[in-house]
Amino acid sequence: MQAEDKYITTDGLRIHYLDWAEPDGEDKQPLLMLHGIGRTAHNYDHLVPHFAPHYRVIAADLRGHGDSDWHPDGAYLVEDYVKDIEALIAELGLTNMVLMGQSTGGRVVQVIAGKQPGRVAAAIVEDVGPERPKAIADKRARRMSDEEDGWATQDEVLTSIRPKYPLTPDSLLRHFVQTGTKQRSDGRWIWKVDRNITKGFIPTDIWRFVREIEAPIIYILGGASNIVPPETQEELKVALPQVEIVTMPGLGHYPCDEKPEDFLAIVDEFLG
Length: 272
Description:
Layout: E1 4-10, E2 13-19, E3 29-34, H1 48-51, E4 55-60, H2 78-92, E5 97-102, H3 104-115, E6 120-126, E7 131-132, H4 134-146, H5 154-161, H6 170-180, E8 181-183, E9 189-191, E10 204-205, H7 207-210, E11 217-222, H8 230-239, E12 244-248, H9 255-258, H10 260-271
Parallel strand pairs: 3-4, 3-5, 5-6, 6-11, 11-12
Antiparallel strand pairs: 1-2, 2-4, 7-10, 8-9
Helix pairs in contact: 2-3, 5-6
């Protein structure tokens, strides 16, 4: 199954998205997928075949990522990403949506689900909560600095990321490199990411939106990750009586990559 590359323009930026709708597929319930920081819409490619028979699957590149435009002034707060995705939702007239987001994409999902409860049927949030502490923000800034020089080949990129994702299959990592990097004018390979995204990767609190969520929502967490600590999980249960929280033992920040079949089984049970 092949996605169609499409674009909208909002806030002066061209935002790229992948649309897997078949000729008669626009009548299906929309499933809007939003990637994590430093990633692209193609990071969901391995999950799409599971959902495409039943949903109109759409995956967007957040501003500053993939084939979307970079913001000239480095406007990359969660609210900036939300503004673009709300424009995409309005442009396509999406309603009764299932939202799925990993990491920063999961923060965008939480905000939209709280702001537009009438359009959201269900929300799936992968290993992220309503808060981003300073330690996590600083870690991303260090990584962007370390990767600024790029690599001589895509194979070198692959070699560099393997230790960071020891549980992710090599074939998937290779796909991420092939779809998520580009060659710079000097011949070096770099991620398709504006290094200024770190300007928006700051301590963040979106509880004011989360408390307004009405749709069924599930947080799928990696057991080896500390992004959503136990005290935050307890606060979510108080704030959202309908919430489900599932921890996948031993997994890291991207459970959908490390054990995709188990991740999909959890999602299917939630949506079913």
